[in-house]
Write a structure and sequence with these properties.
alpha/beta; 4-stranded antiparallel β-sheet; 13 strands; globular; binds pyridoxal-5'-phosphate
Length: 359
């Protein structure tokens, strides 16, 4: 006799981001800005004041206050998490009973379906159209038909880089009043005027997720936030593990959020470079036709449909550039202006080579 893993764990593989060293990393939608040197000094000073022998603040109050101030929300609506990944896990496991119905959309962030399967949820998938949009009326109909207890989607979406308009999201919230709507706004910093952060007091079925890993440029620390009305916020604070975020991450997040101006400059730079990258990729494709479709982008990355996903991915990898590959699709995070130029050069290089070989 030997110990047997439960079935849902037996075939599971650890999360496996692309391996190796790359000169240019465009695979994980991180910010290409490293931490400003002056702010880094300030961070180190602040870290020096931590009582390392003491447990962290269970509610990360200083970080939450700085976050709330940055996004202009009331701090009483904010819960800190160990990355928004932890918050997705807590919400999927604690706000539903096993066997409850979860609706996700596809394509979308893979972690939603992953946690649904681990927590024994009844998962229903609503497929997007080929242009990666979906009709909210059809979606609402689908959710009602499946008796959804919870829906979760990213807006704007990872990986499609497309977004659902604010008025449409409101319609979902209003039509699905007894269903929990989890809105992952990880990339909303890059899409102006569409956030629902200002609306959390008006919907008692809404949770918005934010992260420090993208526009804020802190993927190296684990810090995410849930923003929701008081009923949900109280439940989240009560059900999370007491010390889910550590003193260092709290202090670092607090310090960075207080530099509002720099964060805003960085975000607008990223938006600008993403737009240039999208334009250049479209021009590139008009010349070489190796992509079937390049989607419009409301994020810091671009999404491409192509039968050549494998070869583009591996040729870039050989040239020390990491991007993300899905079945028949590619996702490329925007890099700095210089990184994007190198990306385009390397793409041209091997496409030229392929064409010459084909002659
Ligand atoms: C990157 C990302 C997150 C961030 O997760 P963290 O755990 O905070 O790093 C959340 N949702 C989506 C859709 C993402 O792409």
């Amino acid at each position: 006799m030997s110990y047997k893993l439960v079935k849902k764990l037996a075939d599971l593989k650890p999360y496996d981001p692309i391996e190796g060293e790359f000169e240019i990393r465009l695979d994980a939608n991180e910010s290409y800005f490293s931490l400003d040197e002056k702010i880094k000094t300030e961070v180190f000073e602040n870290l020096g004041k931590i009582d390392f022998n003491r447990y962290p603040d269970p509610y990360a109050r200083d970080a939450v206050r700085a976050f709330a101030d940055f996004y202009q929300v009331d701090e009483k609506f904010v819960t800190a998490g160990n990355g928004s990944d932890e918050l997705i896990s807590i919400i999927s496991s604690c706000f539903l009973n096993s066997g409850d119905n979860l609706v996700t959309v596809s394509p979308d962030f893979s972690m939603y379906a992953f946690y649904a399967s681990i927590y024994g949820l009844n998962s229903f998938v609503f497929e997007k159209k080929s242009d990666m949009t979906f009709s909210v009326d059809d979606f609402i109909f689908f959710c009602k038909e499946k008796n959804a207890n919870m829906v979760i989607f990213s807006n704007p979406c990872n990986p499609t880089s497309c977004g659902v308009k604010k008025s449409d999201v409101k319609k979902i919230l209003e039509e699905l009043k007894n269903c929990l709507v989890v809105l992952d706004e990880a990339y909303m910093d890059f899409w102006e005027g569409q956030t629902l952060l200002g609306e959390v007091a008006n919907y008692d079925n809404l949770i918005i997720l934010k992260t420090c890993s993208k526009a804020i440029g802190l993927a190296g620390i684990r810090m995410g936030f849930a923003v929701s009305g008081e009923k949900i916020t109280n439940a989240l604070k009560a059900v999370k593990s007491p010390y889910n975020t550590d003193s260092l991450s709290q202090k670092i997040a607090e310090t960075i959020f207080l530099h509002k101006e720099l964060l805003e400059i960085n975000t607008s730079e990223i938006i600008k470079n993403n737009k240039i990258l999208l334009e250049k990729m479209n021009k590139f494709n008009e010349k070489y036709h190796i992509f079937d479709r390049i989607f419009p982008s409301k994020t810091n990355f671009i999404f491409i449909k192509t039968k050549n996903a494998d070869v583009v991915f591996s040729e870039l990898k050989k040239r020390s550039i990491a991007i993300r590959k899905f079945n028949g699709f590619l996702r490329i995070s925007t890099g700095s202006g210089r990184e994007n130029i190198i990306l385009l050069e390397k793409l041209e290089e091997f496409v030229d080579k392929l064409e010459k070989e084909g002659e």
